[in-house]
Amino acid sequence: MANQSTFRTLTYCNLDVIGYEEAWELQHELLQLRKEKKVTDVFLLLEHPHTYTLGKTADKKNLVGSKEYLAEHNISVFEIDRGGDITYHGPGQIVGYPIISLTEWQNDTHKYLRALEEVIILTCKEYGLTSGRKPKYTGVWIQERKIAAIGIKISNWISMHGFAFNVHTDLKLFDGIIPCGIRGKEVTSLANELGQDIAIEEVKEKLLKNFIEVFQYGKIETMQREELISFA
What we know:
This protein has helices spanning 20-35, 67-72, 109-126, 190-194, 200-215, 225-231, and strands at residues 9-17, 41-47, 51-54, 76-79, 86-89, 93-99, 132-134, 137-142, 145-155, 158-166, 186-187, 219-222. By secondary structure, it is α/β, with parallel strands linked by helices. Helix 2 (67-72) links the parallel strand 3 and strand 4 (76-79).
C-alpha cells in the first residue's frame, strides 16, 4: 500500500543472459523464499537465448514453426505455468521477472498487470515514443504494433514471470509463432521504432527506475548474479 512504500525494500539483480530453464527454476526458488519472508521483493532483468514459451491456456497450434525451423534457429520450447498464450524470448529483448508481494502493495491482479504496462509505457516515453494499452489485450502497444508482452503467475499473492520488452530483438523470429495468439497484429521493438540500436544496459536502468517509481519502493538493494543464485 502507498502508506507502506517508505518501508518496502526491493532487491534488484541484473542476470545478463541466462537460460530459460535456469531462470524458471530460480524464480520458483525465490517465490518460495518470498512466501517464507526470507527475502524482500526481488526484481530480475535479463535476456534469454532463443526460446518460445507457451502459457497454461496456450493453443499449441500457435506454434507454427516446424521442427526444422526450430532446429535451424536453435529455438527451445517450454510449456510453463504463467497465464497467456505463446511468446518469444531472445537476445535483444529485456525480460523482467518481479517476485513481489502484492499483499504489501495491492491485492489486485488487474492493477498489477496495468502497473507492469505502466513501467514499459514510461520507458518508451523516455525515448520519445507514445505507447499504450489495448482494451482486449494485455501488453504494451505502439499503435497496432506490440512492443511488450506480459504474462504472470500469482501464488499466495506473490508474483512471478512478468514482461518481455523488445529492444533490438530479431523480429523475424516471431514468424515461428502467432504471438500471444493474436492474429493480424505486428510486433515491434525500440530499435525498429527509433531506427537505431539502443544499448540494453541503458534500457535496463530506465526500466528499474520506472519500476521503483510505479511500485513505490523506499529502499533499493543490488545483488550480483552469483550471490543471488547461490543464495536461492
